[in-house]
From TrEMBL:
This is CoA-binding domain protein. It comes from the Bacteria. SMART domains: CoA_binding. Pfam families: CoA_binding_2 (PF13380). Residues 21-115 form the CoA-binding domain.
Length: 166
């Protein structure tokens, strides 16, 4: 089912619910992690490693190492069950990633910005998982923890007037 031709009816967790998910998460697996510095998954990985206490794992069957850390071929190969599976894969791959996440017992399926798959969300929720779609875990974490300025999203000034530099 193409998301471009279907109307969105699934409603994701509220901001307080997303904060709760992030607070209860201790480990994150980034599925579709890349070693290319221009990719969103690489940027998210560097943020998570430098600005959080999460145990971060990379999943990509064609890479051996990212940021000096091992890369695992699948979720089943990880040394622990990840609390949160963050997905950087195309929509056609999402059902398979969900099946893997359910099989290992992950608690949350988090689909990156631009990823939306209502059937996957429904199946994940039926399996007892939390689901977040079309949101960036880095942006969400930063907005709840005062770090949006790290990516230039927040100047720290709330005003409709231009700031005068001294």
């Amino acid at each position: 089912m193409s998301t471009a031709t279907t109307e969105r009816s699934w409603v994701g967790p509220s901001a307080p619910e997303r904060l709760n998910i992030l607070r209860s998460t201790q480990s994150i697996a980034i599925v579709g992690a890349s070693n290319k510095t221009a990719r969103a998954s690489y940027f998210v990985a560097t943020y998570l490693l430098s600005s959080t206490n999460y145990r971060v794992y990379f999943v990509n069957p064609v890479l051996d190492e990212i940021l000096g850390r091992p890369v695992y071929a699948s979720l089943a190969d990880l040394p622990e069950v990840p609390d949160l599976v963050e997905v950087f894969r195309k929509n056609d791959d999402l059902p398979g990633v969900l099946d893997e996440a359910i099989a290992v017992g992950a608690k949350t399926l988090w689909l990156q910005l631009g990823a939306w798959h209502e059937e996957v969300a429904t199946k994940a929720e039926a399996a007892g998982m939390n689901v977040v779609m079309d949101r960036c875990v880095k942006i969400e974490h930063a907005r709840f923890h005062g770090g949006l300025h790290l990516a230039g999203f927040n100047t720290g000034v709330v005003s409709s007037k231009r700031q005068v530099l001294a």
